[in-house]
Amino acid sequence: MRFKSVYSFILCSLLFMLSACGDADKEKELVDLFTTASQDLIAINFDAATTEDLISIDTFFDYRIEGVKSNGVDVVPVDGNIRWSLSDGAVSSIDQNGRLSSGSVAEVVTVTARFGVLSTTLDVTVSAAKFDQVVKLNSTPVSINMCQSQPIQPIARYLNDDGSEEIRPVDNTVINTITWLIRNQDDDAPSQRAYIKTENNLAELQALATGDVFIQAQAKSLSSGNIVTSADFSQTLGHNFNSLKLCHKSETDLSTCTLSSADIVENAVLSIMSVGNYQASDGSSYNQNISAYSKWGTDSTSNATIAFSADRQQINVTANTTGTTANISAACGNVEQAVSDSAIKNGVVLGEPVTCAVGNINCLRATAAVNINNIVVTSLEVKADGVALVDDTLLVLASRPSTINLNVIANYSDNTSQDVTADTKITYNNRSAFVVFAISGSPGAYTVLTAGNADIQITFDSQVFIAKITIP
């Protein structure tokens, strides 16, 4: 706290002195000071976990900055208001989002990031060494359980013209060209236990079942020009899976949510997620949305159809047939049903229930019954000239109007509403004809005849609302 107070005092003093100056340079310094002080930072650095100081020619790398808070301990990402630059004479370039685009020649450049009055630098070697082959799946061992995913950063060998090697992460121009081959270790057959997805220059290992697999990376060597297949990388896809359940996607507390049945109306969409409960290494447990890596099915595509959302974080169930039920099932692990390789890649959605074989501890399943009901009117809302009425309760007017105009809204079981004031199915029963008189051709409109209590019974689709108004 004392350190922060001193830091704030110094900043305030500098701001006071700078505010007395009027030239453009001092004004810029003042803005820089405000920028720094507003984030309570005393230093910025390149994010060590994601920073590379050796990259290939003709590629790009996105640099990130983190800031040290004034307590000297807390570190936070810094996303905006960073000014990026490269050393003079650099062939490479950098944009103001921190993306370094390397040139076509080898060089060493200094990357500078400035945030307010703070700055940091990094020397980056742009290498002409050519990609040869992947030598490691990830820089560190990958720990992953069934129905989970983990980002990976493959490590490759790059060769210089003199034959020397560079061992470093695969760059962004090569990562997208890799074909990943996965086999089961127990039978050496092509495996559906896992899949590696590459998107936006990032690779992600997805575990769809438990077991041991061999993973190989196949890509064109830019050094030899040949297609090279890596050695086998052994990978264990763990279990540590306690239970599986279904929940409404809108639920935020994954520990308490549950869904065994739901009622929706025809053409409505119900969004469901699968939630896995896992055992952590310290003995505790945690819950996770595993919809993307679960296998989904329905017992009746005519009653309801199912499909992944664009981000695969939920399954959308569309109700097709009123008066029916669709049983939605989800499973994690090796199900009994045949699954295509394209489904493993894009998400498994079957037109039949997914099931686990009896006694198969490497497969967990959950189901929910979706009941498809008729859309019915659940209530009526009535207003008199914009004032809400309460069913069968008098509204006392302060003065006598010449007319009264009723507006009727029907609320439906699918949570929609509609103005039905002039609907052909609505009926108005004026039980006080000596007080108000219906205006012909204007449903819900009445001419006030005299003082008294107006009593109008409104009926729509079996719902009844009694409008009562005291007219002075």
Topology:
Blueprint: H1 2-19, H2 24-39, E1 41-46, E2 54-56, E3 60-62, E4 65-69, E5 75-78, E6 82-86, E7 93-94, E8 99-101, E9 107-115, E10 118-127, E11 130-136, E12 148-152, E13 155-159, E14 165-169, H3 172-175, E15 179-184, E16 194-199, E17 202-207, E18 211-220, E19 227-229, E20 233-237, E21 241-248, E22 261-265, E23 269-279, E24 285-289, E25 295-298, E26 304-308, E27 315-319, E28 324-333, H4 341-346, E29 348-350, E30 363-373, E31 377-384, E32 387-388, E33 394-396, E34 403-412, E35 417-419, E36 427-430, E37 436-438, E38 445-448, E39 452-460, E40 463-471
Parallel strand pairs: 2-10, 22-30, 25-29, 33-40
Antiparallel strand pairs: 1-4, 3-8, 4-5, 6-9, 7-8, 9-10, 11-13, 12-17, 13-14, 15-18, 16-17, 18-19, 18-20, 21-23, 23-24, 23-27, 25-28, 26-27, 28-30, 31-32, 31-34, 34-35, 34-38, 36-39, 37-38, 39-40
In total, how many domains does the architecture comprise?
A: 4
Assess the beta-strand content as a share of residues: over 45%
Low-confidence stretches: 1-7
Shape call: elongated
Corresponding CATH architecture of the largest domain: Sandwich
Number of beta-strand segments: 40
Q: What is the averaged pLDDT score?
A: 92
- What is the radius of gyration? 34 Å
The separation of the N and C termini measures 69 Å
Question: What is the CATH class of the largest domain?
Answer: Mainly Beta
Number of helices: 4
What structural class do helix, strand and pairing data support?
A: mainly beta
Give the fraction of residues assigned to helices: under 10%
**What's the story with the biggest beta sheet?**
6 strands, antiparallel
**CATH fold title of the largest domain:** Immunoglobulin-like
